[in-house]
# Entry
Amino acid sequence: MIPFNKPYQSGKELEYMQAALDNNKISGDGMFTKKCHHFFESKYNIKKALLTTSCTDALELAALLINIQPGDEVIIPSYTFVSTANAFELRGAKIVFADSESNNPNIDTNKLEALITSKTKAIVPVHYAGVACNMNAIMALANKYNLFVIEDAAQAIESKFENKYLGTIGHLAAFSFHETKNIISGEGGLLAINDEQFIQRAEIIREKGTNRSQFFRGEVDKYSWVDIGSSFLPSDLIAAYLFAQLESIEKIQKRRLEIWNVYFNGLKQLSEKGIIQFANIPDYASNNAHMFYIVCNNEIQRNELLLFLKQNNIGAVFHYISLHQSVYYLKNNKKVALANSDKFTSNLIRLPFYYELSDEQIIFIIGKIISFFNN
Ligand SMILES: *Cc1c(COP(=O)(O)O)cnc(C)c1O
# Structure
């Protein structure tokens, strides 16, 4: 069986976890957490980086920071992971779904302005497959209507919009280090703060509503309960694993891009004949090789191909069920029509993608896909 995903160890993960233990500090904000923060702040120019236990948590922290209140509206793509919606739903927001572009699951910025009302508080673009949304269009709307932008950059590490790294453009952004992402720690995430007004409160909310971070820096002489909060910080063992990955980011990205290109070149003949479609990567976006997906021409064919690959021991998978079609949403809301979102729900397939996937395995997968369409 070629699995869909296999978590990767780049080399120093266990050594660094042992070092955290030897340091007698494995709770949050230890030595390795600080190294990870520094990595993100210096490499990507994020004003303040804060590790969280997941991207889901980083999004929830963001929703608290922008002070979402019941009745506020938040615009997100429907074709996304549940956490993009839940973070705001939990605070009582009304989720407003935007459709995807026709040739790319990212939010269609041409249809965004029509969704903005006097209650709109934020837009949450998701950079699907690490391919940038049109951030110029989104930031222009945010400025015009005084909205916050929170980038769901879960899949977007190392990727850029024009010359800017994703996760550095919105007021806030959330990254994921779940084992299916490029850089992993099993579970894990990061809140990127690009608007300085949020830094102090983010530290407090992340530390159970206390000013403990200031206390440890010697800025206050005791710490106490100063705001609402929760426990969003990961153990330093997780940060140790993550830091080993970050140190290997160039090696990891190089191999992932090679894998992506082997798939692309091998399947090009099918896309040229219009049998499948590839990810459209606009000129303003880069490719971080987060995933390789193909889009079939209809759902029946997609499901037959998935079954055929499974019979050949290839762990290909479909992806999101659009949230506007979900049980939870339809329980409380009227049906909305989002044709592009529906198309990606029914026609998209993600192919196995992980560091240790060999060229031989990829060529085997390509051969099976081509033989499926030849019959
Ligand atoms: C993976 C992912 C998340 C959730 O990340 P976790 O770290 O598992 O909480 C959120 N949004 C998107 C777009 C994702 O791909």
Remarks:
- The mean pLDDT is 97.
- The two ends are 23 Å apart (CA to CA).
- The longest strand covers residues 48-52.
